[in-house]
Amino acid sequence: MKPPKGLCWVLLVALLCPMPWVAHAGGQTIKGIAIVGNQSVSTAAIQAVLQSRVGQPYDPATVEADLRALFKRGGFADIRVERESVGGGVRLIYHVVERPTVLSIRFEGNKKIKEKDLREKITIREYRALGGEELARAVETMHQMYEEKRFFLVDIDYDLQPREGGADLVFRIKEHGKAGVRRVQFVGNHVFSDRDLKKVLKTKERGSFPFRRGKFDREGLAADLALLGRHYLNHGYLRIHIAEPQIEISKDKRHIFLTFTIDEGQQYRVKDIRVEGDIVTTPEEVRALITTKPGEIYKHELVETDLQKLNLFYGTLGYAFANVQPIPMPNDTDGTADLIFAISKGRRVWIDRININGNSSTRDKVIRREVLVKEGDLFNRQLIEDSRAQLMQLGYFENVDIATPRGRRPDSVDLNFTVKERPTGTFNVGAGFSTAESFFLTASVSKENFFGRGLSGQLAVELSKIRQQYIINMTDPHFLDSDWILSAQSSRTVYRYPEYDRRAFGGGFSLGHRFMKNFTASLGYHAEDVKALNFQFTVPEVFRQNASGLTSSITGSLSYDTRDNRIYPRKGLFVNVFNEVSGTKLGGDNDFYRINGAARFYQPIWKGVGGRLFGKVGYIKSLGDRSVPLYERYLLGGPNSMRGFNFWTVGPSLRIPTGPTSGDARFVYGGNKMVQMNAEIEVPLYEPAGLKAVAFVDVGNAFAEDEPFSARNLRSNYGMGLRWLSPLGPLRFEWGFPFKRRDGEARTVFNFTIGEFN
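RESULT FIELD:
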């Protein structure tokens, strides 16, 4: 602790001023040195710091140095030097006042913050000397802890209670309750109403609803000033001035009143747009990148967009540190403003080293193969941003940061990719109840980044009273470190329908390749051996004829993918078209042609609210005399298609007798064509926990060979639910309600699933 400045000056004046007693003492010998007032610090320890010694001549400058050394040593709140004359010399007496030793620390009045948390944050410790600065820091720290919980008006005082060997430190805390913003008002606003400006602010008034808590913090006020200024700039008010908000507190210290004083000025329109400075091509080509047009109201956010385009344009040409400065030149006479983009391109730079950081499980090569620039290439900002987008699309990372520090040469930069990995393994479980299957259970284990090599695989199991299905697949998205995609899949299924049993075992593989930017094409082969057994007499003969046999087919697919994340997408489009041809010429027993199409569209709407549109179409046609096999036909219903209907109950059906004397039952045999559309809106309920509400509408149906596609015959349902991004994966709790419910259909269908809608 530093000595008080006043004390230092008094001592300095006392020691140096030409007073008679000083002149009389000059040249005298120090006959003795005494230490008074020390309790915990030994006399020997203090004397060891002093330069003044018995037998040496008395020197005021040396005494001053002793004072500085003792204060620097610490542990003393005050030090005073007294000189007394003795025979033939002087005796120095050092009066010291030690800082109190803290014997105990107590907190009184704290209810909103635990004593344990307060002790952990402050630096004061028991059985150590207490410093004034340390005490002030402790009080400030406790104030900050309360502010984090919105207790801005808490009173914190302290008291030192002396006792033998030191003192007890007691912090007395008075909590006034959470302060909330009761009213926000504006002075000087004429263009926008108070209501309009309140919508801009981050700070909201306390309301009657639980989520309108009137949260107040000073950082939020700074953001509000910026938001208000930006709002006016986006409407052409270039000379906007907003003073620091006035803060008033109610007498009970529970309500805060904010007043913003605004000087709006006048609105300006853009008159002329010019580019000046380093023009690498032509002024016309550079101006073509600018979306702001003469005659329009000046909009700051539009100018910022133009600024980003120009920086990207120069960065694509290798100018990594180009500086583009938009300069508005307002004219108060006619209310116009010239807009000048001043460009300083700097020097061209090349990429020196590409460094990968933060990847603990993902191998470097998995990341580097998504990077579109190489070491030694000319700097290209567009390719670097595209590289970041491709890394995020993998779904392996929560975030990817890119830094471009200077390289080893003046004309080079390093490219540092810092990734934050996310768990890529998921365990999905689903359970439900349907009239067709009774209780059923599904489970799957999948991994999107096996061994950090970018391999993806899945093991899925579905079990129910009448169904067993086992699936295993593996995909290498960069086979042999190329752009080729190799996939392999195998499955075994057993279905025990009321009318017959179906058993199948098969597998296949495909080889695909990426082309252009977002397209992928693949070609593959699939084989499946199916056996249909134990037919009941109620099954029509037409469905028994080709119910068993080998399906040997060639498959092909084309996909287009712009999703921002392939595992947890929030924005983008995915479209896939799948073709399959099966025939006896390929060694199989079934001849048919199938084409399926699927599209998924994701779009953020507002503040975490997201919209999703899914669509599927399918068509299958027999290429021989026999009808399409029963097990290849389209059926809808269930948690991943029509959520207001039980599993596989939507599609063409027959009424068949259940026995010689009993009635009949509905037999859903499926269609040779289908259409399905799903629309969803997700609303965040509690972002930190990943809890969301969802509302949805499903439309679709399957049609038999003699039925055309018809909008009149489409079935539909609506519903709502909850979704939680749990450690096991996305949990879905959804209730579906059919429109125009038919006889035998449930009024409400509940679906519980772990996994995304697909």
